[in-house]
Specification:
CATH architecture: 3-Layer(aba) Sandwich
Number of strands: 7
CATH topology: Rossmann fold
Strand content: 5-15%
Number of domains: 1
Shape: globular
Number of helices: 7
Order of helices and strands: EHEHEHEHEHEHHE
Structural class: alpha/beta
Distance between the termini: 30 Å
């Protein structure tokens, strides 16, 4: 099993869904995990308590990544908690929603870009003093970044921008020994998504996948753990599809 003992990790949006599963997976491998949340205090505390009750170490941190001040606030809290070294950053916090080109509204468009693109960009920037040789940054993107799935033009654009950002960051930070990768899930059944809970959504998801079942966050978290580990030491600038063979 992957051993992350002695390492520190931050998971943004770590209170629910893929973020929650990733935080639990990293902790199970021995990492000390900071669970970031925006508004879900009770859920973040629940994740931290679950980690601690299993013998792990966890803290929580709150920051609004829709706000320009959010990344700096989060970085300050991380420094206070872990000191001078952060080994793993999982930039998972995101927002979305289906909307056609005609129906898309400015306010929702801007919020998606703020959280899905500006947020991870400046979180990484603000945490650079804590990242160094052997650190791993994992940005959660989406199948929608490279394939047309549903009516998601604005959301897909944010995830495409995030994947471009990953390549540039990987190139710029590789000399410091910092790896930066994207992880692109397909359709995942989470508490926040109602898509797969409808007959139409369920059938659509199965129809685009080679593996005919609906995925859960627990299908994604082990790949996060792998990318965080030394087993992935020669992988950077990549986008790893975790989508059950979608759109082959």
């Amino acid at each position: 099993m992957t051993d992350l003992s002695g390492r520190t990790a931050l998971v943004t949006g770590g209170s629910r869904g893929i973020g929650r599963a990733s935080a639990l997976s990293l902790a199970s491998a021995g990492a000390r995990v900071i669970v970031h949340y925006g508004s879900s205090l009770d859920e973040a505390q629940s994740v931290a308590e679950e980690i601690c009750s299993a013998g792990g170490k966890a803290d929580i941190a709150c920051a609004d990544l829709n706000s320009p001040e959010g990344p700096a606030s989060l970085a300050k809290q991380v420094r206070q908690l872990v000191g001078a070294r952060l080994d793993i950053l999982v930039a998972n916090a995101g927002t979305g929603g289906a909307s056609s080109i005609v129906d898309q509204r400015f306010v929702h468009f801007d919020r998606m870009y703020a959280v899905n693109v500006r947020g991870p960009f400046f979180v990484i920037q603000q945490l650079l003093p804590l990242l160094g040789e052997g650190s791993s940054v994992i940005v959660i993107t989406s199948l929608a970044a490279r394939s047309v799935v549903g009516d998601l033009p604005a959301y897909a654009a944010t995830k495409g921008a995030a994947e471009t950002m990953v390549r540039h960051f990987a190139s710029a930070l590789g000399g410091q020994g910092i790896r930066v990768n994207a992880l692109a899930p397909g359709v995942i059944d989470t508490e926040m998504s109602s898509f797969t809970k409808t007959e139409r959504g369920h059938d659509y998801a199965l129809g685009i996948q080679a593996l005919k079942r609906i995925a859960t966050p627990d299908d994604v978290a082990p790949v996060v753990r792998f990318l965080a580990s030394d087993d992935a030491r020669w992988i950077t600038g990549a986008s790893i599809a975790v989508d059950g063979g979608s759109k082959l």
